[in-house]
Write a structure and sequence with these properties.
- The chain is α/β, with parallel strands linked by helices.
- Helices cover 41% and strands 13% of the residues.
- The protein has helices at 6-11, 14-17, 26-29, 38-45, 67-82, 84-92, 95-106, 119-129, 148-159, 174-184, 207-216, 236-239, 295-299, 301-311, 313-331, 361-372, 397-412; strands spanning 55-56, 113-116, 137-140, 162-165, 189-195, 220-224, 243-247, 259-263, 337-340, 352-356, 374-375, 377-378, 387-389.
- A 7-stranded mixed β-sheet has the order 2-8-7-6-5-3-4, sandwiched between helices. Strands 9-10-13-12 form a 4-stranded antiparallel β-sheet.
- Strand 6, helix 12 and strand 7 (243-247) form a beta-alpha-beta unit.
- The protein starts with 5 loop residues before the first helix and ends with a helix.
């Protein structure tokens, strides 16, 4: 491995330190990149060095990293390890630069965005940081059980607040979501908590309308954005939420242990940090002060942002939607197969649940991996138990077609 470029350190250049060219990838920068432009997307896919034992169809989980991010992370780790006290902190000092770039992508102020470790940390920061009174109520969609609801359960046990799950049909329309929340709100409702894109289903909830509903009643809105940022364009100003938590290691393709928490400017001072810190109450960085942190992972967020910006949020969203809708079309007439996702094609993203009659999600997951080498995630006991698929930009139409053939073959028995 080449030695550290110490001149780059003195000049403050993370890209040079990582041994990376600073310009865009020519093949990507030159193309318009529609969702079905295979010349464009094959160049994007080439940026990944993927495990060849199976085909990844789990983009909504922990995504593979582009080569440029892996290269940067490796070099930053070497640099930090060579003298941890100064070098790790040098890498961490680039948080403000990354904060500004992420804020521009999300359309919020840099002073409203904290760099966290993941969505869970952001959700718990809000749950533990709000000042609740006994009798206050928090409303959840029925899809928040695994993450957001669990963040509020210890708060409810301590404070005596009420946690209410709002019943919704599957799949829900936007009107049904808003009407259901409106019917369950009371004068004690303090907070609404929903996912932007629902984990394992792909429903895109009408967060803008829910924000207006909450604010009209004097309540606030917390959005779990784990599966939206880096997947579809996110505009926090237009969304109107008070809090938004996301993981950068999912669709942005940043290293594990990186995330972001948006707190609307006028909410920062009154929200307690998760850890005891000495910081101004109105300073967004109070949510980042967690003790020693991996500077290499934080620094490599920059290369993930580069990659996302060069593809373009709209183009990436179009590709993910195209791959999912190709899957849906291929399975539309398959006997015993159902694809459940966002019902509105104008709002649809790139994520869905595939259900095969007579198969549990666990068995379907294992069979797709062992027999056909597709890596998906399943095991959702209930009427619509199945597998959760979320193709990413490194997947090809040929892989989608092979997946369709595999599911059809399984359904035929």
């Amino acid at each position: 491995m080449p030695t550290i470029n110490r001149r780059a350190v003195l000049n403050g250049s993370l890209a040079a330190l990582a041994g990376l060219a600073s310009g865009p990838m020519p093949a990507i920068a030159a193309s318009r990149g529609r969702g079905d432009d295979e010349d464009f997307w094959s160049n994007v896919a080439f940026e990944y060095d993927l495990e060849d034992r199976y085909t990844m169809m789990n983009g909504g989980g922990n995504n593979p990293l582009p080569r440029r991010v892996v290269s940067a992370l490796t070099r930053y780790l070497e640099y930090a390890a060579s003298a941890p006290r100064p070098n790790n902190y040098y890498l961490l000092n680039h948080r403000d630069q990354h904060r500004g770039r992420l804020a521009a992508l999300m359309n919020c102020g840099p002073d409203e965005l904290a760099l966290t470790r993941n969505t869970t940390e952001g959700l718990n920061t809000v749950a533990s940081g709000l000042e609740f009174e006994r009798g206050d109520e928090v409303l959840f969609s029925p899809f928040e059980d695994r993450y957001a609801l669990s963040a509020f359960e210890p708060v409810a046990a301590r404070s005596g607040i009420k946690l209410t799950v709002v019943d919704l049909p599957v799949p829900p329309t936007a009107d049904q979501v808003v009407e259901a929340f409106a019917e369950r709100m009371t004068r004690n409702t303090r907070l609404l908590c929903v996912s932007h894109i629902v984990d394992s289903w792909g429903f895109v909830l009408p967060v803008q309308r829910l924000a207006r509903l909450a604010h009209d009643a004097g309540a606030e809105l917390l959005v779990d954005g784990a599966l939206s940022f880096g997947h579809i364009p996110v505009d926090l100003r237009a969304m109107g939420c008070d809090y938004y938590a996301t993981s950068l290691h999912k669709w942005l393709n940043a290293p594990l242990g990186t995330g972001a928490l948006y707190v609307r400017g006028d909410r920062i001072e009154d929200l307690w940090p998760l850890y005891g810190v000495r910081a101004d109450a109105g300073d967004i960085s109070k949510f980042e002060r967690i003790g020693t942190r991996d500077g290499a992972a934080v620094a490599a967020i920059g290369q993930a942002i580069d990659f996302y910006e060069q593809i373009g949020p709209e183009r990436k969203a179009a590709r993910l939607k195209y791959l999912l809708e190709r899957t849906m079309a291929g399975l539309s007439d398959a006997s015993g197969v159902r694809v459940v996702t966002e019902p509105d094609p104008d709002r649809r993203a790139g994520l869905a649940r595939v259900v095969v009659d007579g198969w549990t999600g666990k068995d379907l997951t294992r069979t797709l991996l062992d027999r056909y080498s597709f890596f998906v995630y399943g095991n959702f006991p209930g009427e619509l138990d199945g597998v959760y698929i979320s193709p990413n930009v490194f997947n090809s139409p040929g892989e989608i077609d092979r997946f369709v053939d595999a599911v059809r073959e399984i359904a035929r028995g």
